[in-house]
Amino acid sequence: MSTHPDPQSFDGACTVPETRSQTQPETFAVARHDGWTAKRQAAFLRELAATHNVSAAAQAVGMSRQSAYKLRARLQGEPFDKAWDAAFQTRFDALAEAALERAMNGVEVPHYCNGKLVGTSRKYDERLTLALLAMKRDLLRPKPSHYDPASLYESSDLAGLIERVEEGPEHWRSTLDDEIEALHGPQPEPSAIVDPTVAGPCTNDEVSPYKNGK
After folding, report:
1. What does the pLDDT look like over 78-122, one tens digit per residue?
2. Rounded distance, CA 151 to CA 142, Å?
3. Smallest Cα–Cα separation from 158: which of 80, 72, 67, 51?
4. φ/ψ (deg, to 5) at 121
5. I want to staple 18 with a disulfide (CB 3.0 to 4.6 A). Which of 10, 25, 154, 165 is the partner?
6. Strand pairing category for 107-113 and 116-123
7. pTM of the complete model
8. How distant, in Å, are the alpha carbons of 1, 33, 117, 127 from that of 61?
């Protein structure tokens, strides 16, 4: 069970701390009329991952279940939406793992006679596991293309997605390169990358094989 945050701590504008790249962080100070600041969204997602309950997660941050679904509908395909999926997948994976263990090892069933335990047996039921695996396939969305900014984050990267939601902006940036630069900082130009396998010109301290007429 998670420790519920103070809902009042999310009210007002949200100023985002420095990005992980520590290079000229972007600041998204947004006073939202609906109350869903970036900080509140991130706290909701953490609660959702811990409880797997939309109503409980919304209540923990001082919001309603209806407003949470409304926010998700408005941000369909955006970081908040993808993080929502990741939060459910985290809990689903734990449930599927437990069901798979029961399917493989069975469940111990006691047998009584005249009120006394006379033995046990194991009951195996793979239908539950098969149903869960089929449900997971239905829940998973197609992976975005390699050029889609959303492809920078795997659906299993819950912590990274929540941090992305908290840091903003609430929509994906225009290109994948923009997302990469915001996450890791400016990337070197291809011409600036030195290939160690390509030999450069000899320096004064190096001996050329053609020196002294050789």
Report:
1. 999 999 988 888 766 666 677 767 767 777 888 888 888 888 888
2. 11
3. 80
4. -145, 170
5. 25
6. antiparallel
7. 0.57
8. 15, 16, 49, 38
Do 159 and 87 form a contact (C-beta atoms < 8 A)?
Answer: no
Instruction: Name residue 97's amino acid.
Output: E
Mean pLDDT of 131-140: 64
The C-alpha atoms of residue 186 and residue 151 are separated, in whole angstroms, by 18
Q: Which two tokens stand for residue 159?
A: 């912590």
Query: Do 55 and 31 touch, CB atoms closer than 8 A?
Result: no
| Contact criterion met (CB below 8 Å) for 10 and 174 | no
